[in-house]
């Protein structure tokens, strides 16, 4: 369990994190979202015990980060922003070092090392120094380091930053696998990632929590929730279609993207417009390439509450 | 303690992971021997001791030790690895001591490698080896003092150059204070005793005292306190500035 109460971090004039309270339970994957400078990294650094809060408290698995910092740190694995490490060390040397600091011994140490090395596909670069690795490999070394002691809590600051699409997918699969019995907190500004791995999203802006919900619930706050998008085969039908759809009583607005001959009809609050539009398309003889119901656009929700 | 040892081992290995360590040792050996033979007139004095060898150690250390200690924390802060280190289950004090001890062990290795000059004087005459051992201990403790100062300076900045200059300046002050009594020879008594009091804070004074052959508990205590204080200051500096 991660618990924060009125957590705040104030620099001279700036409140980087301002009175944040939340709890995360095992099995949850919490995504921290927010514009750059919103306080994501500062919050994670406080949870990881790197910087002290100026007010409020937080605890990791019941260990207060200020009164029992070692126990709190021992129960979490942390990937700092940018995955810093010791460039002159080999991957093997570095992971050995972390394993030692985590007091892993004997067969368990070997099996944990084998596990993270295998899971993050580091076999080929084990004897290479970290400074010679690509950005993607460095990030994976950082992840391996965080996972090595199999801690109940993982705090990962931008775990997929700098990875190529395949590697991103790999890391997401990895997070999903570990999610069952762990608490995982990730920060990201890739919204599709939130939908792919997070069971819950907290959006932070200017140091405060502005939204805290499941990604699906957040998406329903979008004005595109239950909107209907349709793409026509010929742009010629565009203006007729637009006029007809806009005339429907339950449609609030119609947006047009002429380049793709695409229309998006936004429903009035709570209205369902798909059947009406489908029926209208048949009646008017609109030649459709595509017709679909939108669940809501997270990026639009994100913009509307953080700007 | 255990964590300090783990950190010390990693740190010491990282010195030797780059050519820097070997270059440093080479420069150190060349300098100490050059000074001993050319300025200290080791041969010409015709005495079987290493006084002319040890007498230049404070001056050489002011620059070379600053070069060893400059990277201690400045580099960790610059590369961000400090965030990785300080989020492991280790205390700040364990980390500060671990890194300090690694630097100290490194300097000890350099000092040990000056053994040919010891063999030389033993070959040429019959030196008092007890005095030489004491002087080696004094030199090592002095290096510890400089390293602790350097650790603190290095914790205050992300720039290794600034850490180097800051350490050299503060170290130089700690050496020069020991010169005060010699400068006020003809002045009134109270000036002389004031100068003596100030000089007792100097690294130079305590090093010279040990290198004469007597490892006095007061000199040892002085270095222990100097190291303890500056490492405490390192922890405080890091606590305040580590995330900047």
Overall helicity of chain A: 25-40%
How many extended strands of chain B? 0
Distance between the termini of chain A: 31 Å
Major sheet summary line of chain B: none
Which of globular, elongated, flat, extended, rod-shaped describes the shape of chain A? elongated
C-alpha-based Rg of chain B, rounded = 19 Å
Question: Roughly how much helix do the residues of chain B carry, as a percent range?
Answer: over 70%
Strand content bin of chain B: under 5%
Give the N-terminus to C-terminus distance of chain B in angstroms: 28 Å
Task: Bin the strand percentage of chain A.
Answer: 25-35%
The number of distinct helices of chain A, counting runs of at least 4 residues, comes to 11
**Gross morphology of chain B:** globular
Radius of gyration of chain A: 24 Å
- Oligomer, anyone? heterodimer
Helix count of chain B?
14
Classification by helices and strands of chain A: alpha/beta
Main beta-sheet annotation of chain A: 6 strands, mixed
């Amino acid at each position: 369990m991660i618990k924060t109460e009125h957590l705040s971090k104030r620099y001279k004039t700036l409140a980087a994190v301002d009175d944040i309270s939340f709890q995360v339970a095992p099995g949850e994957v919490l995504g921290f979202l927010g514009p750059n400078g919103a306080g994501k990294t500062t919050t994670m650094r406080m949870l990881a015990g790197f910087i002290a809060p100026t007010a409020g408290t937080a605890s990791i698995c019941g260990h207060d980060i200020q009164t029992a910092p070692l126990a709190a740190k021992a129960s979490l694995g942390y990937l700092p922003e940018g995955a810093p490490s010791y460039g002159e060390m080999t991957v093997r040397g570095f992971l050995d070092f972390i394993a030692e600091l985590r007091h892993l011994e004997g067969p368990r140490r070997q099996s944990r090392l084998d596990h993270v090395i295998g899971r993050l596909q580091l076999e080929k670069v084990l004897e290479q120094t970290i400074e010679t690795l690509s950005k993607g490999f460095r990030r994976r070394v950082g992840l391996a380091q965080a996972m090595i002691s199999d801690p109940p809590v993982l705090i990962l600051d931008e775990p997929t930053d700098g990875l190529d699409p395949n590697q991103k997918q790999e890391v997401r699969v990895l997070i999903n696998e570990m999610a069952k019995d762990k608490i995982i907190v990730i920060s990201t500004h890739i919204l599709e990632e939130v939908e792919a791995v997070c069971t819950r999203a907290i959006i932070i802006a200017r140091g405060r929590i502005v939204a805290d919900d499941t990604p699906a619930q957040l998406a329903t706050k979008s004005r595109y929730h239950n909107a209907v998008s349709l793409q026509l085969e010929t742009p010629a039908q565009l203006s007729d279609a637009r006029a007809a759809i806009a005339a429907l009583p339950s449609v609030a607005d119609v947006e047009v993207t002429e380049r793709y001959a695409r229309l998006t009809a936004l429903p009035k609050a709570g209205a369902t417009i798909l059947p009406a539009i489908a029926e209208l398309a048949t009646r008017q003889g609109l030649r459709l390439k595509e017709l679909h119901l939108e669940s809501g656009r997270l990026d639009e929700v994100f913009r509307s509450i953080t700007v | 303690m255990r964590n300090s040892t783990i950190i010390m081992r990693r740190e010491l290995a990282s010195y030797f992971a780059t050519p820097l360590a070997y270059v440093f040792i080479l420069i150190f050996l060349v300098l100490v021997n050059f000074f001993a033979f050319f300025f200290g007139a080791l041969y010409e004095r015709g005495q079987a001791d290493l006084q002319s060898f040890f007498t230049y150690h404070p001056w050489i250390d002011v620059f070379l030790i600053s070069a060893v200690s400059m990277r201690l924390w400045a580099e960790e802060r610059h590369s961000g690895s400090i965030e990785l280190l300080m989020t492991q289950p280790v205390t700040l004090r364990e980390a500060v001591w671990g890194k300090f001890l690694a630097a100290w062990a490194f300097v000890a290795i350099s000092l040990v490698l000056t053994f040919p000059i010891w063999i030389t004087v033993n070959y040429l005459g019959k030196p008092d080896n007890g005095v030489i051992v004491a002087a080696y201990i004094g030199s090592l403790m002095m290096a510890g003092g400089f390293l602790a100062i350097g650790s603190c300076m290095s914790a205050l900045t992300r720039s290794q150059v600034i850490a180097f200059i800051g350490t050299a300046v503060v170290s130089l002050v700690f050496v020069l204070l020991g010169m005060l009594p010699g400068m006020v020879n003809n002045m009134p008594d109270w000036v002389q005793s004031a100068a003596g009091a100030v000089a007792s804070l100097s690294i130079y004074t305590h090093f010279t005292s040990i290198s004469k052959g007597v490892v006095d508990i007061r000199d040892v205590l002085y270095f222990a306190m100097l190291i303890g204080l500056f490492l405490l200051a390192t922890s405080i500096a890091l606590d305040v500035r580590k995330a900047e």
